[in-house]
Fold this protein.
Amino acid sequence: MIDFTIPAELAAERDRVRQFVIDKIVPYERDPRLTAHGPTDELRQELVELARAEKLLTVQAPVALGGRGLTHIEQAVLYEAAGWSTLGPVAMNCAAPDEGNMFLLSKVANQEQTERFLQPVIDGHQRSVFAMTEPDGAGSDPNQLTTAATFDGENFTINGRKWLITGADGAKTWIIMARLADNPHLPAGPTLFLCDGDAPGIVIERIMNTMDRNYVGGHAVVRFENLVLPRESVLGETGQALRYAQLRLAPARLTHCMRWLGAAERAQSIAIDYAKTRTAFGKPIGEHQGVSFMLADNEIALHQCRLTIWHACWLMDQGEKARHESSIAKSFVSEELFKVTDRCVQVLGGIGISDETVVEMIFRDMRAFRLYDGPTEVHKYAIGRQILR
């Protein structure tokens, strides 16, 4: 049976989330603490407390850790509602990279690691990072990992350089990917390590200037200088980092799509309102075919994107890994939503490239979305390999 009905309880919660974002979060979009490098930690904490008061904080977390244990479909519905403002997911603690990191840690971390590194993130008291991407190595192809770890039987020593590390500045929970060298004690290969952000040996060189500004702390260049970590810092098993990364990436690709679908809806709503009131050549511009067709194309794209997301989520809720379908969703949705926001800028005309509305910010952030968690071309490469296999 195919059923696209949203249960009444979920629909009510979706509406509650959307209204919370409109009433409590949207006013912060003009806050000076929303900087060129994203919201400050002070602003984030203020937003988090608003969500906590409404019992909307980290609703996706496992029930045992204080969340509601949402299915992927339920996440899709609520994250779309939260995405109405780019600050909505920040407030509800379901924004990247924390959302993906919490998912990974909930699957792989042991009890001690859960209490020390995961629970404070779930509770909204600290942020996390996933340090994988490198200037001369790992990125879309993590097999090129150059950050090195050695093990002497007691401690690991990590050296290397990362960049585009989202949220590194001020984050307390760090997940670091490094290549463990051959040693007589443990299996070698790409390995994930957990540590505190203030550990000696973690050097934040600088915050990069990027076109997007929706992630707390921006994107950093980070250097590891003889970072010494104890044996219990290994997340999962040594040599298994690429497998764990895949565990994280498929759902994380989809949650990006969910949140940005909400933002694109917001841009469409603003464009529609403008098209109804702005006049040219004797009538509202929305009555001109050139504008109405752009809005129609947007409506079609939003609907297609939602269905694509829901299908991949449904597969994962059935126990499927859905890597192929999540790649399809990430590739298709990111490209289509970029077109949607581009058309919204076009409908708005001159104010579309100004900060008179949030559409300009959404447009810049949406351009970056085409790169997050793998650029479109990498996903198409993977999709092509799968269909030819």
Summary: The longest strand covers residues 155-166. The CA atoms of residues 314 and 320 lie 9 Å apart.
